[in-house]
Amino acid sequence: MADAHPRPKEHRVEQVPVLVVGGGPAGMAAARAARRGGARVVLVEAGDDLGGQYWRHLPAERAPAREDLSHHGWARFRRMRDDLLRDAGCEVVLGGHVWSVDRRDGAPPLVHVLVGAPDGAGRQPRAFEPAALVLATGAHERTLPFPGWDLPGVFTAGAAQALAKGERVAVGRRVLVAGSGPFLLPVASSLVRTGARVAGVVEAAGRAQLARGWGSRPWRLLPALAKGGELAGYVRDLAAYRIPYRTGAAVVAAHGTDRVEAVTVARLTPGWAPVPGSARRIAVDAVCVGHGFVPRAELATAAGCALGADGSVAVDAGQRTSVPGVLTAGELAGIGGADLALAEGEVAGAVAAGRAPPPAAVRSRDVFREFAARLAAAHQIRPGWQSWVADHTVVCRCEDVTAGELRSVAALTGSRGLRSLKLTTRAGLGSCQGRTCGRSVEEILGPAGLVDAGRTAHRPIAVPIRLGELAATTAAGEDVR
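RESULT FIELD:
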């Protein structure tokens, strides 16, 4: 009988001058810059096309006539993608999932990849030994927990936008968008273009917080005026579709039986605690919530890269990390948007190829780092959010671990180790491996001494892998220590 799960063929470790992991704006820019520097490049992207989450789009066979209407910088993306796919010196590996990296003293790590559908059998393993490694793995969303956030119909803002942009599917008929950050605006815009009625956009940061973040020394933002054009487009959508925009408020509970039927929105204090008596109920059949982004640092952490206080990877002026030969760009080096990612990617790619970074890219990076600093200040999460998380509120949705369980176990055991608390409560041990709840778990357990942001990002095996695949790669000679 034929083997239903064929073993991957044995393979050798491939030496490559520059390996780029991630095919979003930062990774694409890095690969192009490295090629301009004369280096041969392998670009590994987990999706079935380049573009990342920012340029997420329908496949060519289902693309609408005006795909550009759903994307900023669409012409630039098409040009970059065509350049990379036509370049014989750049191998683009689509469907490539990096599941592990092996540290090496004084050199970039070995990088282990499985190529194929993430839920398919017979994925093909490849292993790379890069002279320079550029990590451009982006970020994933952060959503603060609240009572009822585990009901069907509660989506992250990014998931709602991905369905709207990638499949033209609306998550509901009457939808509320809530959380913090300018990303809420394109999400609302994407929803109305798929036929949903957006009941409102609710921003947690109050007017004073927003003014301090964006209003301080406004002339320093003049070089980033293109961002103002994007904002104006979203404001036009809010006005055209009569979508109310509210600041200093948050969704503090979702209600329903089989799915969301309504949410409770309350005004917040400057510290983000709900104001007593301010709650009101809004009928919806879906709610999209996002409170910014968290760098996807599992590969960087596994490689030994030093992290900053916010969980991003610390880099120097050349986008080099603390590990020799490892560079990073984009959201992994700090949340700042596509323009910053493109500039950082260009710097990282040039340096990876042994060239000086282009002065124009360095100037652009500095401009959009200023923008990123304002973004962080204006929409920074305040600690009062924990006051709307009751003891019965589920924090880890994969393992049904409540806030009360986290707090009581920390108090009863007196443990100061994240590992022991995770094993005791099982928070962060489910299918998402803490990507959804990790930062919230860290902050809730902060009084127990767990204050180092990003500690839940330590995942030696970065993506799901079958035991048979792991055994096959070991049999083929890979070192998976």
